[in-house]
Design brief:
Blueprint lengths: L5 E4 L1 E4 L6 H4 L19 H4 L22 E4 L11 H9 L3 E4 L4 H9 L3 E4 L2 H11 L7 E4 L4 E3 L5 E3 L4 H8 L4 H6 L2 H16 L1
Parallel strand pairs: 2-3, 3-4, 4-5
Antiparallel strand pairs: 1-6, 6-7, 7-8
């Protein structure tokens, strides 16, 4: 998993509340178990017209936001079914950070397991960040995970809370497998002892 330390990007504003996981990645794309290739299907029902052409009104199709790595979204982001394909699709598109006032619990947990930083801010701070995002390529946000700060284009700072263990995992690029491998020496020692017992 790619470590997350600091990230600077033009933020994309998605002013929609209750964005569920089916909106993030519709059910017809869930047949794959690969984590790659889902970026083109991210928000597909909003991104594309019925004929398959791009919807120019959708934020991620607009020139300023095509390469955004930060998504500023409405309340209750990631609600609905517990599909891990949702963070996979966001990450494959290039989104490394989602900022909202609240997240569905399962989606929130899945973000950390896949290298995405979900940040919870107050409604007042979200409005400030929406204002920054509305400026398009004229404005960038910098997310500093170590300092737990979001710096705006005009020098303003928003602070956020995060669980220390989750912060450690993100900063060091540790998913569940990585955490297990940190204990590889102890696992090997245990297995060696167990093998000697069985043959004793």
């Amino acid at each position: 998993m790619q470590p997350f330390t600091t990230l600077t990007s033009t933020p994309a504003p998605l002013k929609v509340i209750n964005v569920d996981t089916d909106m993030i990645i519709p059910k017809q794309y869930l047949k794959t178990i690969k984590r790659t290739g889902l970026g083109t299907a991210l928000f597909s029902e909003m991104r594309y017209k019925d004929d398959g052409s791009e919807n120019p009104d959708f934020v991620l199709n607009q020139p300023s936001y095509r390469k955004s790595e930060i998504l500023v979204a409405g309340d209750n982001f990631g609600c609905g079914s517990s599909r891990e394909h949702a963070p996979w699709a966001l990450l494959d598109f290039g989104i490394r950070c989602v900022i909202s006032t609240s997240f569905a619990d399962i989606f929130y947990n899945n973000c950390f397991k896949n290298g995405i930083l979900p940040i919870v801010v107050s409604p007042e701070d979200l409005e400030k960040l929406f204002d920054d995002a509305d400026r398009g390529s004229n404005a960038t946000l910098t997310v500093d995970l170590e300092k737990q700060e979001i710096k705006g284009p005009d020098g303003g700072t928003v602070t956020f809370d995060i669980d220390p263990f989750r912060k450690h995992c993100l900063m060091n690029g540790l998913d569940d497998i990585g955490l297990t491998m940190e204990k590889a020496a102890k696992i090997d020692a245990f297995e060696e002892k167990l093998a000697k017992r069985e043959w004793a």
